[in-house]
């Protein structure tokens, strides 16, 4: 028995770790050690049951989380084993497809298309059809494609070698674009992120032996953040666990923040109904945050009506009250934040990397960055532009992909970068010939490079380079191959002449990441496997190398923790988002409230919420988020000038766009119900009022506030 796997766990965590068989669900609030239990359980199964890691699937929500978990697992069980199945849904699908996609007549070196690749395909289609984005923007069209792909049945059509795609003249344009898109995708054997899940799904549905193999192989399955599973993900996990019936899921319904993207928390909530033998373990001790932070989180999330009540406690040391800073304008807000950061560094010996600045939408990072730059505070943004979607990185990847798959997309990217005098006219020639002769663009160029049309070009040199490395790549490491390709193709020189230092730095960062990756896997890195893995990675997944303040959206911060957290730009219309307010649906507003809860519960020691007056992007006046006022007032320390008049204005604004009030769903605690009808009250936001009615059943006061037409139910605290 390896005791250290259980060391320091509380009783319920220990139960979660040692109950290895059957269906188990762990429900708990933020910071209660769910992920820790999941990690230790993995180690427990390996060490105490002697199960090989290749028989345990452990699904996490982001690459960052899976990298983190691999590290933690390795520290528990040693680094010698293959932890490749500690992965994301997409990572797992790539793994399955590499092994079994041949059943669907696709090669194992299929390529993964990111958003930019998808747009490149659309651009080609638009050109061929002679339409412009005035017809429909690429983003819109991609949304349509994604919604078409909600039903995975199309995979059967796409992968059937005999099926014909109708792209005839008289077809409806949108349908025609869709079919052309599928056709082009197929031609490059490209799978977008939706396809990864859908192909895997169809593979399991239609090929019993494949499903059987994976079901048998996966003795144990664990899923973190299960509350954010979509229908497809839920089905996939259920299929996979059907034979061994060892499925362990952990989650917190209060942290569902992806409903807008198809997450369905009810699968988690009703997990016990789907699996009647399921055992539910509830963790209730928070290890992450001070009692002050925990109280603020709890006080806010209680306002959601669609939730299961949980009681969390902590034995952590008391700390400072959560602070709400109200600035007069953006500069004032960020100035206060940077002063506070400097103070934390000087007075509390905080490292910059202990500090995170979170925000609702990535455009907010602009004013935050400006403030940090002004104060010379190093920072790193996680998220935003995807690292592997930067032009220079895509170019480098395209050179690599051309070696492996020779696909049209990679070809078009680099055939004339650097300039080889293969411009529009010659590309058009290649495209036409390729279509007619059913060849890839690369093979077409190979066939016609001797044609006089290519006399004044460097087509032959280009082909010689690619052919050479097609022969030799297996003998080289990926990093060696990349270095040679960039040097010999002239790309390196082209970047240098271009003189953009940023791009050169990005490319060396990319190079560095390959070397690190090669070292970390300890076995030979295969080029095709690398290319598939890399496409799934984003900026948010990069290693933290520098000591710098971390900037990210709340969505990216999910599952993570930081000693000091600033939640900036907490303006009504941003959080909650104006979209959620315009929808006027309780569910949308509640998701925004959960998002705020996620942000608050990331903090270990200190939590700061800031916002400022001024104009929003839409040109309207900014007011503090209604969520700030929903937090029990005595839990928050207010700093900054929030004048009475502005208060009242905020009230009227919130009131004007409020649809929660009036539904009677703001409950009172019994101990607080000490007011009688006629009692005068003063509310920090709504001002003075008189209790008009008390609904004991609902624990709600109905209060008439001065200057408001209707009576509003409100917490009388
Ligand atoms: P979230 O809902 O935000 O994902 P979580 O429930 O997954 O949170 P963890 O990230 O696993 O929580 O744990 C939160 C913090 O508490 C971590 O720093 C973890 O190491 C620590 N922790 C968890 N359990 C214990 C324990 N029994 N003793 C000491 N520290 C613990
Ligand atoms: Mg977690």
Set out the fold topology.
Elements: H1 11-18, E1 23-28, H2 34-49, E2 56-59, H3 63-77, E3 86-87, H4 89-100, E4 111-112, H5 115-129, H6 138-148, H7 154-159, H8 173-187, E5 190-191, H9 193-206, H10 208-217, E6 220-223, H11 231-241, E7 247-251, H12 266-269, H13 271-274, E8 279-283, H14 291-301, E9 322-327, H15 330-347, E10 355-359, H16 365-374, E11 379-381, H17 391-404, H18 408-414, H19 424-437, H20 441-448, H21 459-472, H22 478-488, H23 491-498, H24 501-521, H25 527-536, E12 549-553, H26 554-557, E13 562-567, H27 578-583, H28 586-600, E14 603-612, H29 626-630, E15 636-639, H30 644-656, E16 680-683, E17 687-695, E18 700-705, E19 711-714
Parallel strand pairs: 1-7, 1-8, 2-3, 2-6, 4-5, 6-7, 9-14, 9-15, 10-12, 10-13, 11-12, 13-14
Antiparallel strand pairs: 16-17, 17-18, 18-19
The structure holds adenosine-5'-triphosphate and magnesium ion (MG).
The site of adenosine-5'-triphosphate (ATP) has 19 residues, from helix 2.
Gross morphology:
globular
Oligomer: single chain
> If you average the pLDDT, what whole number results?
86
Question: How many helical stretches?
Answer: 30
Determine the N-to-C terminus distance. Answer: 53 Å
Count of distinct strands: 19
> What class would the helix/strand composition place it in?
alpha/beta
């Amino acid at each position: 028995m390896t005791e250290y796997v259980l060391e320091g766990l509380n009783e319920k965590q220990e139960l979660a770790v040692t109950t290895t068989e059957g269906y188990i669900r762990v429900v708990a609030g933020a910071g209660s050690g769910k992920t820790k239990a999941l990690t230790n359980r993995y180690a427990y199964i390996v060490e105490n049951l002697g199960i090989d890691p290749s028989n345990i699937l452990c699904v996490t929500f982001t690459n960052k989380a899976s990298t983190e978990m691999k590290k933690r697992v390795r520290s528990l069980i040693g680094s010698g084993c293959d932890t490749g199945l500690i992965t994301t849904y997409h990572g797992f699908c790539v793994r399955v497809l590499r092994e079994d996609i041949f059943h669907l007549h696709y090669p194992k070196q299929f390529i993964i298309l990111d958003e930019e690749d998808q747009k490149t395909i659309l651009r080609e289609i638009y050109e061929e059809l002679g339409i412009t984005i005035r017809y429909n923007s690429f983003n819109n069209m991609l949304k349509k494609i994604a919604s078409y792909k909600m039903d995975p049945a199309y995979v059967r059509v796409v992968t059937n070698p005999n099926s014909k795609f109708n792209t005839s003249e008289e077809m409806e344009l949108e349908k025609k674009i869709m079919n052309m898109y599928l056709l082009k995708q197929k031609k490059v054997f490209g799978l977008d992120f939706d396809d990864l899940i859908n192909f895997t799904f169809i593979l399991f549905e239609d090929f019993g032996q494949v499903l059987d193999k994976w079901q048998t192989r996966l003795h144990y399955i664990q899923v973190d953040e299960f509350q954010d599973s979509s229908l497809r993900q839920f089905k996939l996990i259920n299929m996979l666990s059907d034979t061994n019936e060892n499925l362990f899921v952990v989650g917190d319904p209060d942290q569902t923040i992806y409903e807008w993207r198809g997450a369905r928390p009810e699968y988690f909530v009703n997990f016990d109904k789907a699996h009647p033998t399921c055992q539910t373990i509830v963790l209730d001790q928070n290890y992450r945050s001070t009692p002050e932070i925990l109280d603020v989180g709890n006080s806010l999330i209680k306002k959601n009506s669609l939730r299961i009540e949980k009681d969390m406690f902590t034995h952590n040391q008391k700390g400072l009250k959560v602070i709400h800073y109200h600035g007069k304008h953006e500069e004032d807000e960020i100035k206060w934040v940077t002063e506070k950061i400097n103070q934390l560094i000087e007075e509390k010996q905080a490292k910059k990397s202990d500090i995170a600045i979170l925000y609702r939408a990535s455009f907010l990072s602009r004013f935050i960055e400006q403030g940090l730059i002004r104060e010379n505070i190093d920072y790193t943004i996680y998220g935003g532009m995807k690292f592997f979607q930067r032009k220079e990185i895509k170019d480098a990847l395209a050179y690599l992909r051309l070696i492996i798959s020779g696909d049209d997309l990679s070809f078009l990217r680099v055939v004339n970068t650097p300039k080889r005098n293969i411009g529009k006219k010659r590309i058009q020639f290649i495209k036409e010939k390729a279509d007619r002769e059913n060849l890839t663009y690369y093979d077409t160029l190979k066939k016609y490079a001797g044609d006089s049309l290519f006399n004044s070009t460097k087509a032959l040199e280009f082909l010689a380079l690619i052919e050479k490395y097609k022969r030799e790549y297996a003998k080289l490491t990926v990093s060696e191959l990349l270095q040679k390709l960039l040097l010999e193709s002239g790309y390196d020189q082209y970047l240098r002449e271009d003189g953009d230092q940023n791009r050169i730095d990005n490319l060396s960062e990319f190079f560095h990441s390959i070397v690190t990756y090669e070292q970390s896997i300890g076995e030979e890195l295969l080029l095709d496997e690398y290319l598939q893995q890399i496409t799934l990675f984003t900026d948010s997944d990069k290693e933290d190398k520098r000591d710098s303040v971390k900037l990210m959206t709340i969505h990216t911060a999910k599952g993570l923790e930081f000693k000091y957290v600033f939640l900036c730009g907490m303006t009504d219309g941003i959080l909650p988002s104006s979209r959620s307010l315009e929808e006027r649906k309780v569910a949308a507003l509640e998701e925004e409230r959960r998002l705020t809860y996620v942000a608050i519960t990331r903090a270990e020691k200190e939590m700061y919420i800031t916002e400022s007056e001024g104009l929003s992007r839409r040109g309207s006046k900014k007011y503090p988020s209604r969520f700030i006022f929903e937090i029990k007032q005595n839990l928050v320390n207010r700093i900054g000038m929030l004048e009475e008049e502005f208060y009242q204005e905020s009230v009227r604004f919130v009131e004007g766009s409020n649809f929660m009030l009036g539904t009677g769903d703001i409950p009172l605690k019994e101990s607080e119900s000490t007011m009688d009808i006629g009692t005068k009250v003063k509310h920090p936001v709504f001002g003075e009022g008189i209790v008009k009615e008390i609904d004991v059943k609902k624990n709600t006061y109905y209060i008439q506030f001065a200057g408001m037409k209707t009576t509003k139910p409100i917490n009388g605290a």
